[in-house]
Amino acid sequence: AELRKASKRLSCHKRYKIQKKIREHHRKVRKEAKKRGHKKPKKDPGVPSAAPFKEELLREAEQRKQRLEELKQKQKLNRQKEHEKKRKLEAKKNAAKIKEKAEGKESPGKSKGKTNKLLNKNSKKSFCRELMKVLEASDVVLEVLDARDPMGCRCPQLEQAVTCSGGNKKLLLVLNKIDLVPKDNLEKWLNYLKKEFPTVAFKSATMMKDKTMEQLTKRRARVDFSETSQYFGSKCLLKLLQEYGKTQDKAIQVGVVGFPNVGKSSIINSLKGKRACNVGLARGVTKSMQIVHLDKQTKMLDSPSIIADPSNSALALALRSIIDTEGSDSADVLEGVNAIINHCSKQQVMMHYNIPDFRDPEEFLSLLAQKRGMLKKGGVPDIENMAKLVLCDWTGARIKYYSQPPGFQKPPPYLTEQKIAEMQEGFNLNNLEQENSNTVQALKHPSPASSIVFQSAGMTNGTIEENKVIEEGSEWGNMETSKEEEEEEEEEEEFTESDDDEDDMEEDDDDEDDVKEVNEGFTRVGLFSLIKGTTLSLSFSLDKPADEDDAYDFNTDYV
Question: How far is CA 413 from CA 49, 130, 156, 172, 253, in A?
């Protein structure tokens, strides 16, 4: 038996109910229109028959209409021509690419050189090359360490390269972010590190005022940069470098090196007293060597970050490698957060984030995501984005945590007593110790109760030689190069079409003048019936949404 179609007939009760609803809706729409003061547009009365030169005005208007239509057609043809040109160029390029692939030829040297340059700028090999430039050019090398985990910020390969370079190079340790660790812990670390290298306690300014900042503060009086623009230890470090420069009887170059997010560029900005280098929360902001002149005798060299070796532990890679949190794989970020949480006191993490007990890092992230309202569709916690935020907090200056120095002093094998004496030669260590204690006293430190105890993974191995770098196809680098390649191709297209474009430009200028004339004409005769068509179309467009509102969907409420 064949299935019958469902009947569309309705009961009278349902039909009357629908009609009643429609009437109510129309009444509501009319009422709202009345409130808004929406009135139907008045019809254009046209040119009065008594008006002088009526026929001439109408004739002029007709002529302008015709000219406008001609112009539109002309412009349409020009656009079609341009599209055809572009299609032909694309076809040629595609054909050339296919030929190159078939014959196995390389692309032209010019474009290849440019792409290689761009690729190298964002590659790990480029970072190593620039870092080696800084090390070779420097008389004094400042290794910047994060005071929260100084041992994790030390790179044995870098220290060995400087101490065993053979020249009269000096290595100083700069303990940055000292305002994020308890006072007792900071003093322990200073006593531990000074036995190996001269160590300077430093608190850099995270936000230096420049012209843009001054304008911003003028506009918004409430913006307070007092905490972010304060810096401590700059006088001590400058004095130390200037005194060393006097002993050398020449202008010295000071290289600033270290792992990502330890505050290399911020230290240079603090010494300079203004924003000389770009700084940011993202890792790997500095991509090449930058020279900043402090005075006639001292020149600072900013360097890219040290590349962490892939053989390091998951914790070291999470905190010290150049991870692009937006573009990186979520599995790597989750693994990094997992390692960080496992190396901390669970109770302190719960108290800091104000969350209940959790079994594993994944549950910790889901609880934190729920607390902060980071939810996906359906109320599912967004663990991936939450992990990225947590990782940014730990590498930035938001979380106050500290690690304990090793129980007994065991210098690395490359650091003999003779090398330690060589590194300390030329510096007034007693004066340095006094200045450090003054800096520590001047700062406000967090209490151990409000900080998180952290277990350091020890020194982090780094790659400073270009030939030892294992390149991983960095997506963010390739993205930049592809964009710039596209821009270059567009520029080439513009140059190839220069002759045709000149003619088109002349035509377009003429067209624009004609359009101006026509528009002026229409404004003069706008009150009359010359624009009847346009007024009608306008009234239609205004009434259209009301019609759409009036439409009633029978399937929604009553089926």
Answer: 108, 27, 10, 18, 28
Domain locations along the chain: 124-211+226-311+405-446+455-463, 314-395
What's the pLDDT tens digit per position in 379-424?
Answer: 899 988 898 888 888 887 788 888 998 888 788 888 888 888 888 8
**Do the Cβ atoms of 96 and 492 come closer than 8 Å?**
no
- DSSP label at residue 199: E
- Residue type present at position 469: V
Whether the Cβ atoms of residue 274 and residue 208 lie closer than 8 Å to each other: yes
Structure tokens at 282: 């993202």
Structure tokens at 328: 């990186």
CATH of domain 314-395: 1.10.1580.10
Closest alpha carbon to 154 in 328, 313, 339, 306: 306
Same fold, 124-211+226-311+405-446+455-463 and 314-395: no
> Tell me: the pLDDT tens digits for 355-389?
898 888 889 999 999 998 888 888 899 988 898 88
The rounded distance, in Å, linking the Cα atoms of 133 and 465 is 11
| Closest by Cα among 158, 77, 186, 172 to 446 | 186
Query: Is the domain 124-211+226-311+405-446+455-463 a CATH 3.40.50.300 member?
Result: yes
What is the 3-class SS of 412-455, one letter each residue? CCCCCHHHHHHHHCCCCHHHHHHHHHHHHHHCCCCCHHHCEEEC
Across 40-152, the runs of DSSP E, i.e. the strands, are: 140-146
